[in-house]
Protein 1
Amino acid sequence: MSSPTGADPRPAIRRTAEGDWVVVGRRCRACAEPVAYAWPRCPSCGSAVEPAHFGPRGTVWSSTVVRIAVPGHAPPYSLAYVDLDDGPRVLAHVPGRNADEPTPIGSTARLIGVSDDGDLQVEVTG
Amino acid sequence: MTARGTVAVAGVGTSHFGRQPDRDLLTLAYDAVREAFSDAGSERVDAVWVGTVFAPAGVAQRVLRAMGITGIPIVTVENACASGTTAFVEAHEAVRTGRHGRVLALGLEQMSTAFSGAITPETTDPEGRTGLAMPAMYAMSAARYLHTGAVTPEQLAAVSVKNHAHAVHNPRAQYSGHHTVEQVLASRMIADPLTLLQCCPTSDGAAAAVLTPATGAAGEVVVRGAALRSGTPWNHRSPHVWGHDVVADTTRDALAAADLDAASDADVLEVHDAFTIGEIVTTEALGLVPPGEGGKAAAGGVTALGGAHPVNPSGGLLSRGHPLGATGLAQIAEITWQLRGRCGARQVEGARLGLVETMGGGVSVLDGNACVVTVLESR
């Protein structure tokens, strides 16, 4: 069983001067594919990429509540795939929600930083 | 490519499937290989491809030397849940091109000793590190299908009901039973909306096939076509849920290789139903049923034994069990037995053409680590 050692593979985020959290990723120079990671090439077409920021706003594409034990995460916890506006689909935790209720699909959401464990987090805004 | 030849499945074999922590990979593998050799009528092989995901390094040589298989090319492949069928298509290609004469494809996995519960998500993967366990990944697809009205909770549960009922007639299956839709939905929630009975179990097992050049004998089971693909990016641009497109693309390749018009030409199918939503999405991606009709087909008996397109007569991964690396070859074994008319109460009458689909995932951003689609035919 692997333990979380080495470089953190999760998206890097930072706070803008306006106080918004954004994912620091890449955008493909050829096909404009947004990527949530600082990868050297575009995963869609292999072309060169340039730094790009995504977020903080997006829309919930789907969601679930995980109710089984997963190392490093205490169940139940709420997860959502969020399509960031003009950006990539990212997996994020939705803290503070009633864990018996998955985040409504189609909701608007906003990045709110990372958890103590370094997981990307969003809150539902509408 | 050099020579082009038709390849036969000369023999198949499997272990029992289930939690077998007191056994080891060596004895599980021997159960499968011994039966496959006996079925093929020969113990001679010129090369071996072994599919496994979580077995320790060196497992192929370790289990094979215990049965006297040494000194020949032995290759281990890993393609998540499609590892067993990856071994099969590589073995097929080796025989088809004349690189080797007789090739053994072996899949094996012992999950019960590797994990205390579900598979631990891979922490070097961004979404694995974030806590996206496999049931949660499929739950995202199921939730999306429910949201768009492409499936109902009862239709999801119907897949579990069907496959557990099929497994009643499979003595090697891990689980079986006559459940109701209500029982499936009332079982413990794992990752909303998927309940326990909608998730494959933790399984140990092995399965094997011997591939040889076809002889042309009557009743011989041959590989009519096979294809393997790895996934492309799955993201906000994707029109479908995770995994759909890699299955659809690989199916198109396999049907072209088999010179068939449609997956519905197959009389019987074994497909990847690690979770109920998986079978529904797969039957749609195969083109077996129209888009959005997978749930209705399961609930209406279309994909049940006796229906127009029987899917997973073995009980599938949900009921036979899902020892990852073994699964693809367990599917190949089931279809081979079906095409020989040897499946007893779960036999699809008169089956001559069968299709196997396996897909594996876990690498985030991709539509799947790999998908394999194979068409077998009884000549």
Protein 2
Amino acid sequence: MKLKIGFFLFSFILLFSAVQAQTITINGYISDSTSGEKLIGAVIFDNLSKEGTTTNNYGFFSLTLKNDKAEVITSYLGYGGKLTTVQGSGVHTINIEMNRTGLLKEVNVKANRNPIQQQSQMSAINIPIEQIKKVPALMGETDVLKVLQLLPGVSKGSEGSSGIYVRGGSPDQNLILLDGVPVYNVNHLFGFFSVFNGDAINNVQLIKGGFPARYGGRLSSVIDISMKEGNKKKIHGDGGIGIISSRLTLEGPIKNENTTFLISARRTYIDLLMRPLTSAASGGQGSTGYYFYDLNAKINHKFSDKDRIFLSTYLGKDNFGLTTKDSYGSTSSNSSAYIKWGNITTALRWNHLMTSKLFVNTTATFSQYKFNVGATNTNTNGNTTQDFSFDYTSGIQDVGLKTDFDFSPVSKHHIKWGANWVYHTFTPGTNALQSSNNGSVTADTSYGSDKIYAHEGYIYAEDDWEMTKRIKANIGLHASGFDVQNTLYKSLQPRVSARYLINDKTSVKASYSEMTQYLHLLSNTGIGLPTDLWVPATPTVKPQQSDQIALGIAHTYKDDYEISFETYYKSMWNVIEYQNGASFFGNATNWQNLVTSGTGNSYGGELMIQKKYGRLTGWIGYTLAWSNRQFADKNNGVQYPYKYDQRHNIAVVGSYELKKNIDISGTWVFSTGTALSLPTQNYLSLQQAFPGMPAWTSSQSTLTSVESFQQVNNFRMPAYHRLDVGINFHKHKKWGELIYNISVYNAYDRLNAFFVYMGTNDATGAPQLKKLVLFPILPSFSVNFKF
Amino acid sequence: MKKYFFFILMISVATFFSCTKNVNVNVNSKYTQPMLVLNSLLQPDSNAIVQVSKSTSALDGSTPTIVVDAAVELWEDGKFKTNCINAGNGFYTTTYKPLVSHTYTFKAHENGMTDVDGTTTIPSLSMISIISVDTTAEDVTIQINDPGGNEYYSFDLTTVDTFGYTNNLQLYTDNTMLLDNTSSPAFSFGRHGNRKLHRIPNYVSNQLFIGQSNQYVLSFNTDNGGHVGHGGFQPPPQPLPIGTYYLKVSNISAEIYKYFKTVDGSTNPNPFAEPTQIYSNVNNGLGIVGSRNNQTYFILKK
């Protein structure tokens, strides 16, 4: 440990010494010329020294060279390149505005892009939001997470779900950040839509392995989503009217360029359609309704060239309600049930330029997720009235503070370090129950698990170091701790990701990362329902841990095609699941007594061929993977396939600009069916052989036979495949642009199973496995506009 | 704009009324082949006995059948002890009475089927004693001196009615240590005065009181009948009638505990509950070979 710290200090001293010898530093921000929106990951390249860097998450860069002159070329996907000449030693601040050309037009500095083979980071994919919006979507609703599901190494959950399963990991093992704040539940409409509104998003990055040290707290992936900052030049609007929802985004400057705002809202109107229909169907004796909304808002202010402040927030809520009423003679009954859930996240961020090479970002964060389900019932019989109500609440709340330093002393080193602290409050499920008889309380009780409070913190340091022209590595160390119920967990996690450039077009890459996760998600279904319960590591339930090794090759073909192939092996410890038969609901005992912990592993290979430029853009992804779990008290202690173990996954995604005002797109996916446990054997019970012996509960003492399965996840759902197609018509108006979108989900009407259940054969009445198909061919139409 | 809204409305309605279809699915037959099933409950004071039957596919609705011509052996501590004879109705027995702390294996052979075997060790009795009985409150206080290690207990409260039938009754406690790690069903509590009572599963592991000597108050009646029922209706209080009650407290083998616990999980009506594989310790087959050791107490309610 001491040696490692010594090594880092020594490196710093060397670097500071090196800085003194440098002669020219160029820094600044790179942004879109029409909106002023910062460009994340834009490339800055000096044509003289052939050295370069990229902008950070805030659009800032700093490049120090051993020259007194530089020819700075900037490039970014979908933007024309820009050449800026800088002369004279010292610090030069240049804020560069780039012109959008669209993906159609070739940029004139193609060779200086940041091609895949040059990057030390492996297992990472950036998808421009413009490309995400072109992918045909379920009911026309652009969904960031559903596009991520199309990438190799990422599996979706069940049909239509926004679940993300990265390299055999579970959904809780994804660190999903919205402007740096973790979002705990990313699903609307029981998982069919994600909470991220595409109109408010600037950039999306997915990291599946070789994690940089600045990220921590999850085992399997980082999904870093940045919101737009707001148009600096003029008031701008985006919106759309779709089948199930409408949305509107407004952004622009307040008084001048120094202060901008963005506000984006979306709401469904399923309830407006369903309530009258369900009420009519029940003869006025009940109705069902559901809606969700979300709101993204952001305001930022530039105090000076060195200081900017951003305040961003997200509010989202889902609400499902059901009411019934019935009466006969002097008796009547009124019932209602509800399920509500939602997130709130807030980030207050301060960007400060300490020196020309040292950028600091400090963020205060707040994140909250709440789930609530309940029911009420009133029965009246003459003068007797009985009331009953039940309410279950769970959730998690975080308050945090973090600071990140971004230091570019010389062009060959890009150093980051920082610290983070979070105070968690877990509400792992409390039940409240009341009943009364003519107003006299007969039961009034609450039970369940107590709140748990915990402190989580980490520090990190990493250096993206170009050792030679051929070798570049991102080396880092992440140290974290978790203080819960008088127990302190500590973890030291080394990270390294490196590339060796074989030639200008090809490199081989390798990475190793250790991760520790102090949070667990208890899930009965694994499909991302709001019932999933966030719980902390405790003195009895240990933190999850993993290590992952990956090897790969990256190649750029004819400047237009990026090809990568990666293999990986990931081991996981202390993953938890509910014990057999346990669930989140209605338990008098502590959740810790309902779980079992075990191990997991996953391995496989991923191929991706991506075309980013030209009239035709898109990618082909293929994954061959295995994923397993092992628990001492499940499957007789024998390893079994993970529910989302899918051997083959193929995705073909493409969009083509047919004419200047018409573009078409299509997606075809294929995946091996997911695993599930189905009873296949029926046999005589112990109870019938030895009558009179007590069963677990008295109702089971008379069971003559039982049904079971010999192996957990013994059955495979049928293979999943689907084709989606879409077409966009752009119509330019005086006030802006109208875009008509027609898309067809599941174009060849494949009957993919949402789940499989035991039913009866319609003809014979014998037991028969059946599948429920949720989405047959599903056309949709939406009108979008911009002004 | 009106035509757009109309168009969207029509598609929305079509969408929400056309999205469910049932389609038959075929299952690989390897999962549904019949297997031999052993069911046995060995007790130190009773003849060793096992029932042999055949499983059927859960998918064809047929009924499991007993096996009448199997060859069954009893082994003790890894050594052959005796052959079992057919006692009818699929049962095979010997006159041999198993001994405490010894390990027994039943091995069964049936033509055309894979041989199966199942093993259990007869548990020794823990020190359990009745401390007091309050027949007015219908409480009984017991003391369990848990020896440590993995121990499993069962509680069985019965009474014989005027027609001579034995009825099982439910036990309750306010001591959550006895709740084990069970998935207590929702609303499975009632009140007894100010005490909030939970229904005790008939099988308990010692994981919450491992190696401890504790007293537990067990209640065999509650003010409201034990249930706040589904829908909120409550049965009126039903005091237990005067009579003799039998409280059987047993040490049971781990197999019995795991079997009943997983049967409970597999029959859990909660749609969110984890699918449960019913525990079996029969190699190459199904069923359970387990054992128990009983102590019975008489409680007289005057």
